[in-house]
Amino acid sequence: ISVIVVSGVQGVSDFDLVKRATKVCCDIQPAHILMTALGAIAEVAGISTVVGLHQSRQLFGAVAHFGYDQFFEIYGTKIPGEGAYLIRVPYPEKPISEIKAGGHRTRTLRKRQFKAETRHQVASVIRQYLP
User: Closest by alpha carbon to 55, among 67, 73, 46, 44?
Assistant: First the structure.
């Protein structure tokens, strides 16, 4: 069994840089773009599990400017007693019918399209390097 372990999504202390990158990426924060790319790599490599390490297990400790626990809860579930989060690939998405109609749904569809394009581009590049 192959698993990808995620640790060290450090973030930056300059929130203006994050805001600019988010705006350029269809209102998707850079850490979520990273997870999109990681998901594409996992899928191409036939890996169905990602483990995200709890805040207390990060190598960078207090230096990191990132909320690991809140972030990984978006993608997976906490593994009791392990200080980690189990994340299945592909990542589950809330059904579009459960998203408020109108602006929220339109924005969600736009963001999903951006992520799908990113996932496709990353997968296309990675496939070149796998047998």
Answer: 67
Beta strands in 7-119 (DSSP E): 49-53, 77-79, 84-88
Question: What is the chain's percent helix, strand, coil content, to nearest 5?
Answer: 50, 10, 35
What's the CA angle centered on 88, arms 77 and 57, to 5 degrees? Answer: 50
Distances (CA, A) of 54 to 5, 36, 89, 103: 11, 20, 19, 34
Are 122 and 41 in contact by the 8 Å Cβ rule? The answer is yes
Does 92 sit behind a cis peptide bond, omega within 30 degrees of 0 on the bond before it? no
Q: Give the pLDDT confidence of 75-122 residue by residue, as tens digits.
A: 999 999 998 999 999 998 989 999 888 788 999 999 999 999 999 999
Does the model's pTM come out above 0.70? yes
Give the percent of the chain with pLDDT over 70: 92
Quickly tell me which residue has 């036939």 as its tokens: 46
Residues 86 and 79 sit within 8 Å (Cβ to Cβ) = yes
β-bridge mates for residue 79, sequence order: 84
